[in-house]
Amino acid sequence: MSTLTLAARDSSTMVRRQLKRMIRYPSMTVMLVAMPVVFLLLFVYVFGGTLGAGIGGGPYVNYVTPGILLMAVLSAATGTAVSVAMDMTEGIVARFRTMRIARGSILAGHVVGSVIQQFLCMGVVLAVALAIGFRPNATPVEWVAVAGLMGVFSLAMTWLSVALGVKAPNVESASNAPMPLILLPFLGSGFVPTDSMPTVLRWFAEYQPFTPIMETLRGLLMGQPIGNSAIIAVAWCAGIGVLSYIWAKRLFNRS
Amino acid sequence: MITATGLRKSYGDKVVLDGIDLSIPEGTIFSLLGPNGAGKTTTVQILSTLIPADGGTATIAGHDLARRTDDVRDAIGVTGQYSAVDKLLTGEENLLLIADLKHLSRRDGRKKTAELLERFDLVDAANKPAGAYSGGMQRRLDIAMTLVGDPRLIFLDEPTTGLDPRSRRGMWQMVRELVRDGVTIFLTTQYLEEADELADRIALLDHGKLIAEGTAEELKRLIPGGHILLTFTDTGSLDAARFALGAGVPDPDALTLQVPGDGSVRSVRDLLNRLDERGVAVAEMSVHTPDLDDVFLTLTGQKTETTA
Asked: What is the complex's ipTM, to 2 decimals?
């Protein structure tokens, strides 16, 4: 077997492993999906009236959904960090490493499995949002662009959480490590426009990576102007993704 | 099956392995015995391709450890100290996963899985998640996973640590069966009883060095502490024997005399001849060789004294 077919075969075995794990441990997926859904309902029904009136221009659910989609990715990414840390702290990775298998397949399985899980989370969030009045006006091409952007964002966050999971000394700290990321949609344009914030915070909110991603999503979904947000968003995702990939690989090979 | 010369490993300033030489013939059980922190696990990790050695060379199943790592991996199976099962997957799924990673065909994988579930008494639990298994069952699944690729050499790193006595006996039984099939076993343990029970050859590891190597019997002969216990029917014979031998510790209540000796045939014959010459009647005689506990304590104890 050539190295490439070997890598493909082992990686697909590892992806199957992750999918089976998801099926065997559904409460994990349910928990990861529940987090963004609860935020969605909380923000639409509890804060939405006041926030929506303040922002103006249509129902608040239309404004907040892109930010919640990002939270769906981040929530699932927390699960990835936990799952990687579980693997690292138990003996199974040691077993894999004494077998003649493609090295990269272990992490590849986690990454592909996690991206699938994240799209599942986003699907549920989107369905709930639509059910409670989210009315996007995106064309099919724009939907494809939304999926593409969420794909690169999801990959970037997954590699980042894989690295955090490998680095974590135990499962508990792995589940805490990605927490700060969940705050980022709040400290950006996820829930309120950045120009309503005090100067220092506004500066941070406008330049942090999540804001251009949310602006691009909002533009694609609601037909608003995007400007240069799309390019900045993709550049951030690519940058975070590549650096996290290198970091994760290095940590994994060293441990 | 394993030949290693001068294996070394340090972590920072701490020398974990300080030049280990090993030679293990095919189809035997070799046991590396030592206290916690002696370097047992590090030795297994190096020989099982998990970590590279800092120095030294090793040939495993005919392949150079450093240059033909993948060929070594094809020949070995490893059961580490920590359970290496996927606790979310069922026992059957765990075995099928390893079959896939060993690149068995689907049919062979299913066949092997069914065979191993049967052999390790896991058929009833096959569809339960491994996380719900008892410690002994998890360990059995762990070993079953190690056997999926029919390895010729199996590393067992403290396979019975944390198991109850019954599961431990079961594990011993299984190790013996494996060797009967021609597999070579490299076993580490901190239990002297285990090494004594199973191993063809035993090496004592302490502070990263091999301090003794041989069969259990050879090791026991390494240290003094052996004695011959003579039992008599009356105190008269006891006193006569003591006088005849000019040595020994009498126990008048038990009517026994404990005579120091290495237990060799020659020394026993010598002793009995002297008693015969004086016409002393002995009711019973038993030869006590020191057990591995004595060997281990003596050898490691001396070592700490000289280094201290």
From this structure: 0.85
